[in-house]
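Summary for the lay section of the report: proteins are chains of building blocks that fold into shapes. Here we show the chain for ORC1-type DNA replication protein and then a coded description of the shape we predicted for it.
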Amino acid sequence: MTDSSDDPDTEPETPEDDSYDLSTDEQSDETRSRTPDLDDVVLDNLDTGDSDDSDEASRGLFDDLLEGEPIFENKEVLRPSYTPHKLPHREEQINNMATILVTALRGDTPSNILIYGKTGTGKTASAKFVSEELETTSQKYEVPCEVEYINCEVTDTQYRVLAQLANKFINKNVEVIDDQIGELEDLASRAREDDAVLGDAAFGSVDAIEDEIDSLTADKAEFEEVPMTGWPTDRVYSSFFEAVDYHERVVVIMLDEIDKLVEKSGDDTLYNLSRMNSELDNSRVSIMGISNDLKFTDFLDPRVKSSLGEEEIVFPPYDANQLRDILQARADVAFKGDALSEDVIPLCAAFAAQEHGDARRALDLLRTAGELAERDQTDHVEEGHVRQAQEKIELDRVVEVVRTLPTQSKIVLFAIILLEKNGVRNINTGEVFNIYKNLCEEIDADVLTQRRVTDLISELDMLGIVNAVVVSKGRYGRTKEISLSVPTEETEAVLLSDSRLGDIDDVQPFVQARFDN
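The coded shape description reads as follows.
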């Protein structure tokens, strides 16, 4: 996961604007009871009568759902992928990036840049904003400058990174060659009718033009797209090297989530990219790395670290007031008229301020609140919709985290759930381990050591799924007291959707195992 979690033992800071009670109050409960779930709306529109009536009702299903006026004018501006025309409270970081990259417009190689900051602090949006401005300005001044974006959370191996870059430049080279061939064919056609047009051209004859066309056609034929698997890595690197060096240009390679690449594949990719300028004849390459992890460079080869981190830019978290400004700017474009009540944006900002000043979380809250209001077929987004959105997003996060846990972690978590459901309090590691062993035997899974199970509990703690506190038992030593930090029923349902855990018919005997030695 790219999102950081607070220490479960630490109370979250109160947001700057503390005029909002972030607890779910009676009013929000009442609002939730009035707000139909989409499934309920669908069922209400389906007749339980005979098949003909049911079919007729189904055909009017979406007409009923579309009766209300849409709240959104442009929902896309509330998504993380949207790059706004203006980024409030990031002027300093944007100016720093521009100062470094302006050398590309002079044909020189910009310094490599490392950008740090927690999730939702505007790193990627700012970098993309600066990159778009850089490419636009380069076209204005006819300076060959390109920016290529790679998301290393998706493209997370050296082979995939190099293959994707190689294919991007191969396709661009082919486009350039096609344009040149088209211009030369037009010039040759005109020269055959009147050779006077060659007076201002670089070619003395039609034959010379045709020779150049043949040469470009041969160049085009040599560019072979790199498959996503199957080639030796050296060959992929050579293809990328030849493609990027085909003609003069300055290239900025933006590696988002660069720490994921290092974590999965080591620093070989960064080593190759950061040292290739010494071998290039026509092009120059600069790297812009974006990371949520301020310490990932600790694991890099010192040579890579020194060349990669030539310039560093840190993005601090947003405070509640800054989040308000960001949300207001997006809301003005995203929603129709006065669709938002006065307390919606401050409440979204207050919730997100607890999440390390995460603007992405704030935008998700605002968008989800709008979607819930539309389902409610109302033309206003109210405070209750924001509170529902907060609960929905948190539950969705829990479901996704639990669903993607390794099997062993799921078994450990299931053991904790079984203990809590049976009224056990102050659960300790030994009790969890006893149930864990019996569960493993039931589903024929390998049984890990108690020390490893303790490590898995710590990992669940870091993910915010459980709360594990070390307490002193005096002369009996210290132990961990464990409790769930997520909704029990929903979490259990996700675990039982795993085919292996879902095969357990009767869990009660496993709870009794807590008394075994």
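Put simply, here is one thing we learned. Residues 1-21, 23-55, 513-517 have pLDDT under 50 and may be disordered.
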